[in-house]
Amino acid sequence: MSRERLYLFDTTLRDGAQTRGVDFSVEDKRAIAIALDKIGVDYVEGGWPGANPTDTAFFADPPALKRATFTAFGMTRRPGRSADNDPGLAGLTGTAAPAICIVGKSWDFQVKVALDIPLHENVEIIGDSIAHLAAKGREAMLDAEHFFDGYKANPAYAMECIRAAWAAGAKWVVLCDTNGGTLPHEVERIVADVADAVPGIRLGIHAHNDTENAVANSLAAIRSGARQVQGTLNGLGERCGNANLVSLIGTLCLKPDFAERFETGITQDGLRHLTQTSRLLDEILNRSPNRHAAYVGQAAFAHKGGLHVSAVLKDPRTYEHVPPESVGNERHVLISDQAGKSNILARLHDVGIDLDPKDPRVDRLLETVKEREYLGYSYDGADASFELMARRVLGQIPDYFFVESFKVLVERRYNARRELVTVSEAIVRTQVDGNKLLSVGEGNGPVNALDAALRQDLGKYQRYIEDLELVDFKVRILQLGNAAAVSGPASVDRWQAGTGAVTRVLIENADGQGNRWFTVGVSPNIVEASFQALTDAIVYKLYRDGAPAGTGPAE
Amino acid sequence: MSRERLYLFDTTLRDGAQTRGVDFSVEDKRAIAIALDKIGVDYVEGGWPGANPTDTAFFADPPALKRATFTAFGMTRRPGRSADNDPGLAGLTGTAAPAICIVGKSWDFQVKVALDIPLHENVEIIGDSIAHLAAKGREAMLDAEHFFDGYKANPAYAMECIRAAWAAGAKWVVLCDTNGGTLPHEVERIVADVADAVPGIRLGIHAHNDTENAVANSLAAIRSGARQVQGTLNGLGERCGNANLVSLIGTLCLKPDFAERFETGITQDGLRHLTQTSRLLDEILNRSPNRHAAYVGQAAFAHKGGLHVSAVLKDPRTYEHVPPESVGNERHVLISDQAGKSNILARLHDVGIDLDPKDPRVDRLLETVKEREYLGYSYDGADASFELMARRVLGQIPDYFFVESFKVLVERRYNARRELVTVSEAIVRTQVDGNKLLSVGEGNGPVNALDAALRQDLGKYQRYIEDLELVDFKVRILQLGNAAAVSGPASVDRWQAGTGAVTRVLIENADGQGNRWFTVGVSPNIVEASFQALTDAIVYKLYRDGAPAGTGPAE
């Protein structure tokens, strides 16, 4: 059966850039555009050349895309100007972008309140602007702003606006739910009405997530006749975000009702890179990925309840709607307070430890995990610390080095040149095979200085940690009811009393062979928590590389 | 027009508790149950008594609910047992819960793979179990697990399962999309089929978000005949979460297509507490609320683009689908790199500073904000620091006290009793009116000790800060390209070089009159960043309380 072609249009770099806290650099934009092109997105909207220096620079030196059509965004001509003399349109046609998408109004209320011009003039503006772009040989598209609100308020006028664009040579008329308040059953009906009223019109859908229905609205529009769907990676976008293109790609490619009827540009290989592409955006934004994201979240195929885990181990289809590997994701079996034996056995297997379910040490491990989680540890993201904890319980981790004490000093003062400086220094006393080692380090913060001192001299272990690198460092403040239980010092101050706050530090480590591992530490004191994670990182490396045991501390 | 009654069923405390990283205490559960009851949710599912100590304790001493029906969750009887002799069912009827919801299988594949019993036996198990609960005088409900997958695979068998429950006296048959893979158009069709096939049946919908359609699936089911809708606060739940009850409440109460047709138990006052209820859950979980959540997110009514901001100031309906105050949320105008003048003027107005748009100081402020954001500051969440920054540029903040230097020491060592302890001490040298003050503090961490020392002696300002309290402390590690720009010390170590990491500290402060304010600090050094936020907190309090100026630092 021949399938209809459905086009994917990404606006991460334009509408997504409107998000609170998001500011892409030109290099960020280039990296994202190339990733989108690679998985097979049809249009990559790069931004609004002329609106800000970043976008102007990006369009002046556009990324080399293999398949996707690089698209510029802008506005219809200004009232009172001809399209030929409009500086905004000139800024768009002055770029090399083969496709140009311009936003025009289609809600009578907006024309009156925001533009303050006669209704018919807005229709002329749309027609002129599209005709101008088409005459310049560009693929012209209209983003019909507020189309659904407009159609509900004054359907005849909304239709007049998009008919003008279509008649003027638009290749696509994109129906926008700009305020995001339209519901799926309305989108389904309205898109069908429009498709009926203008035979042959090529419709797009641009949905926002203000009622948490952006994905459903996009799917409803496709079912009613839209053949272009706009969205952003991870649903990035102003307010509640745009339609999440990642979720849409998962459904359009993997769910038979869509995959059998429509063909997209997404390649098989692109689909398998969906998770990676989603994570790339978060990495560029320095955000933690949404663990609960559909298809690509770290928890999307995570199983916690003991019953679910045993069923999934029998047949994954029991609790998985698609195979995680189809989108480049993976199954996770969680250790948690609800952990049953099957969870912990599966998790141990993941880190290479196979135990008999009847082995009494399994119960001891389960107890230890529960106790540590009660204190604020979380092994969900710290496989190396989990493995060390398990192997310590199993008596498999020898003593390597022994830290007698450390001191960390942070000082802010004026230096000799009367500049305000903040310096951090650390002193660590270590023992290796009974030899006392004293080392010192400095850094741009206390943890940093401690790390430098710890690695300055580890005696016979030094060669094992030469290529050890700290890649990332994350801090989380936990509010626990039982903070006192992990508190070192007896002093209880206002914070401790008021909030029972405990710090959890997660460190990502790497070595020269490309290995990466995560370690965790927990304490009311951030330096102590970091120290735990730092020493776990070193011990894990020594264990994995088969370093010889030490002789333990001297008295 | 008389409206049909639609029932809201919350499972935050049961299915939501399956989420990665979530472990409610009994007190957490009580607080959430009471909040749900207050806004007008019909059923509060408290957990699974007998499955774990927390749930057993919670049901032994149930919360005093005014309107909501407290509901226990459990499973159908075990194969080979009579319902009367089933310990699981006895555990449920042993509680005082007036309603009991039990999960039973309705997908032939699951009966074979997970239960491994004949298909007809599963049907008998469902009927027996429901009849047993009904005979005990409880409102019995069946959660028909995997109903949609079951119906697609073997509709006759899936129907047989739910007919058995209905015939045995179930008050509700809840159709569960357990794996979350069903799409809205399928839910719409299947629920309509079921409602047609069993006239009078009372159907519920239980959707999961694995394709990001849980809300849409719930709405589709309601349109097709479901009159109970299950969900969780903020969409908490295993994998990608359950249907988000918060978003559903917004739509059901505020969107005419639903609000004119259906009546829920949500009160007007409850709707206005929707945002607060959503945030309560995050507070209990110590999570940052999702800023982009529909209806209740901090960014749900945030306007960043300059054009949008001017239109919203003319008429909010231009870019808001519902009034933010209807759900207890508020409008936010954002300061950002894209900030136009109208943004910054509106934001200044929010903190009580009204400037003429033509005032040249507005441009200076805009420049300052952009520069600070470039360095890693974010004023989105730190109104007090924003106000201080603006008033400093405007020359309105006098010199109060002056910190000459500070030293913070963190030490880990063995004490005289051979216990491992970690202690933190700070020394601060301050000047007030030329008088040099030396103060010292200790705490359970470096920031903590610094805070204690700073407040120990502020001379004539001491009485202003007596009731100042630090409520919360958040740390974010930022990866900036330009970290060196804010780096105090010249030393660049591995971390700095590798990641350009900068620490942003956000502190929430409170005083005895119930005021709360947020301050921010940024530095590669966490102690220095905290110091900035701590001193901003104090200066803000002094300014607001009208403390007299100091005479500045002595030489």
UniProtKB/TrEMBL annotation, chains A, B:
<dbReference type="Pfam" id="PF00682">
    <property type="entry name" value="HMGL-like"/>
</dbReference>
<dbReference type="Pfam" id="PF22617">
    <property type="entry name" value="HCS_D2"/>
</dbReference>
<dbReference type="Pfam" id="PF08502">
    <property type="entry name" value="LeuA_dimer"/>
</dbReference>
<keyword id="KW-0028">Amino-acid biosynthesis</keyword>
<dbReference type="GO" id="GO:0003852">
    <property type="term" value="F:2-isopropylmalate synthase activity"/>
</dbReference>
<dbReference type="GO" id="GO:0043714">
    <property type="term" value="F:(R)-citramalate synthase activity"/>
</dbReference>
<keyword id="KW-0100">Branched-chain amino acid biosynthesis</keyword>
<dbReference type="InterPro" id="IPR013785">
    <property type="entry name" value="Aldolase_TIM"/>
</dbReference>
<dbReference type="InterPro" id="IPR000891">
    <property type="entry name" value="PYR_CT"/>
</dbReference>
<dbReference type="InterPro" id="IPR054691">
    <property type="entry name" value="LeuA/HCS_post-cat"/>
</dbReference>
<dbReference type="InterPro" id="IPR005675">
    <property type="entry name" value="Citramal_synthase"/>
</dbReference>
<keyword id="KW-0412">Isoleucine biosynthesis</keyword>
<comment type="similarity">
    <text>Belongs to the alpha-IPM synthase/homocitrate synthase family.</text>
</comment>
<dbReference type="GO" id="GO:0009097">
    <property type="term" value="P:isoleucine biosynthetic process"/>
</dbReference>
<comment type="pathway">
    <text>Amino-acid biosynthesis; L-isoleucine biosynthesis; 2-oxobutanoate from pyruvate: step 1/3.</text>
</comment>
<keyword id="KW-0808">Transferase</keyword>
<dbReference type="InterPro" id="IPR013709">
    <property type="entry name" value="2-isopropylmalate_synth_dimer"/>
</dbReference>
<dbReference type="InterPro" id="IPR036230">
    <property type="entry name" value="LeuA_allosteric_dom_sf"/>
</dbReference>
<dbReference type="InterPro" id="IPR002034">
    <property type="entry name" value="AIPM/Hcit_synth_CS"/>
</dbReference>
<dbReference type="GO" id="GO:0009098">
    <property type="term" value="P:L-leucine biosynthetic process"/>
</dbReference>
<feature type="domain" description="Pyruvate carboxyltransferase">
    <location>
        <begin position="6"/>
        <end position="272"/>
    </location>
</feature>
<protein>
    <recommendedName>
        <fullName>Citramalate synthase</fullName>
        <ecNumber>2.3.3.21</ecNumber>
    </recommendedName>
</protein>
